[in-house]
Input
Amino acid sequence: MNKHGILIERGDLLNNKYIVLSHIASGGMSGVYLIEEKNNPDKRWAVKITSMTNKMAAKLKDEARLLSELHHSNLPHVVDFFQTEEYFYLVQEYVEGVSLSDQMALYNNQLPMETILQIGIELCDVLHYLHNQKPYPIIYRDIKPGNIMMMSNQSIKLIDFGIARRFQDNLLHDTVQVGTVGFAAPEQFEKKQTDSRTDLFSLGALLYYLVSKGKYVYIAQKPVRDFNKIMPKHLEKCINQLVQLQPEDRLQDAREAKILLLKAKEELEKPPNILQRLLRF
Output
C-alpha cells in the first residue's frame, strides 16, 4: 500500500490487460506503477492510479483527457485510461530518465551551460505547442525541476499535467492558488488570471535556478549575472525579460524566448575571447 492507500501489488492484473511489475513513485494525488501488457510483455507503460474516493480523482481524469489530445516529442503520450469502482487509471508512456531535480542533486547543482540552454530551448518548443492549442490554449502552470525528465539522449519530457488548464479569456481570475513556490509567477498566488505569460515567468525562474546553481529568483533578489560572470549575454537578457513581476512586462511568446536562447547558444559556441579565458583561471 502506498501513501494514498492504493491496494495495488506486483502481479495484479489491471483491466484484464496490464500486469503490475513494480511501484515507481507516489505523487501529490496518485501512485505510479510500472506495468506490462499481458499479451505483449515487451510493451511496458507507466500507470498513474488514484482512488475514486480521493477528491483529486477528477483532476487525474482531466489530465487524462487533456494529454490524450496532445502529441509532441517532449510530452509523454497517453496509451489508455479507465476506471473501476475503486480507482481511476491513466496509462502512459514510461519515461526512462532522471528528473531534473535529481540531476541537479547528482551534479551538485552545477549543470553545463550547453545543457541548460538545451533544456530552455526544448521547453520553449513544448510551451509554444501548448499555448497554441485550439480552441483554447493550454497553460501548464507548474514548470519546475521535478516535472522535467532528462532522457539518456539529453532531450526532455515535461510530465505531470495535474494543474494544467485550458485558458479562457472571459475568466477574471483562477478559482484556486496553484503552482510551486520558487517557480510560480506572482499572479498564481494572488488568484489572478493565469495565461501563457505565467508559464513564461516559470521558464525564466527555472533558467535562473539552473544558472545560479540552485538559487530562487524570489529569494536571491540578485541579478542572475552575479552568479555566473561569463554566461551568454542573450541568456541573461532572456531570463531578465521572463521574470518580470507584471505579465505585460515579460516576453509575450515562447518563440521570443527561444530566439534569445538560440542566440545564447551561438555565443557559447564561439571561441572564447582573451577576457573570458582569463576569467576561467
Observations:
- The chain has two domains: 13-93, 97-269.
- Residues 171-177 have pLDDT under 50 and may be disordered.
- The chain is about 35% helix and 20% strand.
